[in-house]
Amino acid sequence: MLSDIAIAQAATLTPIVNIASKLGLVADDVHAYGQHMAKLTQATVNRLQAQPAKAKLILVTAINPTPAGEGKTTTTIGLTDALNQAGYQAMACLREPSLGPVFGMKGGATGGGYAQVVPMENINLHFTGDFHAISAANNLLAALVDNHIYQGNALQFDTVSWRRCIDMNDRALRRLTLENNTHTGFDITVASEVMAIFCLATDLADLTSRLGRIQVGLSTAGSPILASDLQAEGAMAALLKDAFQPNLVQTLEGSPALVHGGPFANIAHGCNSLVATQTALRLADYVVTEAGFGADLGAEKFMDIKCRQSGLRPDVAVIVATVRALKYHGGVDVADLNRENLAALQVGVANLRKHVTNLRQHFNLPVVVALNHFTADTEAEIALVQAAVQALGASLHVCHHWAQGGAGAIALAHAVADQAQQASTPWLLYADDLSLTEKLDTIAQKLYGASGVTFSALAQQQLARLAEVSQGLPVCVAKTQYSFSCDPKLRNVPADHALHVRELRLSRGAGFVVAICGDVMTMPGLPKQPASSRISVDADGRIQGLS
After folding, report:
1. Number of folded domains that form the chain
2. Within this chain, do residues 254 and 205 fall inside the same structural domain, yes or no?
3. Known active-site residue 54
4. Which pLDDT band, with edges at 50, 70 and 90, does 216 fall under?
5. 402 noted as active-site residue
6. Residue 95 appears among annotated catalytic residues
7. Is 301 among the residues known to form the active site?
8. Which of 135, 354, 441, 483 has the least CB density, counted as fewest CB within 10 Å?
9. How many H-runs (helices) and E-runs (strands) does the chain carry?
């Protein structure tokens, strides 16, 4: 069996200008990075944004992730290829991989098997440099804050809340003491407010304005100090100007894909850039996008943050599940997942049921279930999941896109296209005018099945300070992706738990409040055996071991 990187390296790629031509673009509409990657020029994006959107928007999400893997990105790519094979004009909108997971535990984020975006190595590593630009803009602001204080502190900083960032898992950087004896720390770049702003801004003017609204600290009088007070937003926007242009690549089957932006869904809002999505909606008839991790995180934030701010509404949601992952939620150890276990599967299917019910009841989203097939799945196991989904009044389609590419997801493609043509009126989970506490209660009780929300002493103090400024802002819950609860060990659909808010952070420029819950960290650490130990370069300069 070939590895993902071997499959990608063996592929013959189409010149990127030819991929662009499939979308009605000409050579001057793109700025090429070699033969197989390009950015859409800002002029092209501006021209397209002035046109009406024409595409149906398909949101791919999943059950709570497990060590067994679910294949959400693989399904997004496979579905895009299948739609094109079936005669529809489709393109994918994905997030860029972060170097932290690439060298850590999760690996890359370009799909797998015969459902990948390519060139796989470039996309998973430095790509077109977008994340480096975001890190630089973030850290420029930190340097300007420190320099302002050093040069006399005319703004009378009392506290500094702005943190530095780096696109790498490095737990040693979580908490630092600076030369002036102030305390700070690093977040991973994907969790930075600059990343969130980058992914939610509508154009360069909006990007600059949002950067200026970043709150970096408080004065001795208790007044907020913004990036615009330091005249930082212009220089930050200059660093981000080229990165802000969406990246065009292709799947193994030559389907066009915009891969742009990359916030995590457990500690950030977990969606690709709005400008890429809006651009794609004007270039294709079907746009397939994904929201990170399970639907309790990524899909909720897609709706309550990205859709709330932009007016977007998906036409249909696809929930990805696997028999193996459902057995894991039913209590089976990873080593035993290849053995048939109908009893555990019957228990674990409750996780899928909860996600389907959440999207249909609380967002009014039509749902199609994609069962990502593994060779160890038995007919009895597939039939059990099929019956559970049918009992909910939804459809399930067994997919083989990992092994067969788009041909393995044709049935899913037709079902999704048919459903997308049906009229739907998705709604948001909560109203703008609710208090921050009420919004958290709504998410916790309706989506997570929690009894309610508890706050640490620090969070209670922050809640009081944010009461006025947070009015009208959505909340971005940062919690473990592995459970509906705050405890990653609580699989399936846990009961008798509360959402514990440890800390609240205002992302004024991004336009939301981050609620950090449980033990989740905004700077992840590396596992005992990092993926980096398997990665190398051969004598011909070909990367090995990347997955």
Report:
1. 3
2. no
3. no
4. very high
5. yes
6. yes
7. no
8. 441
9. 20, 25
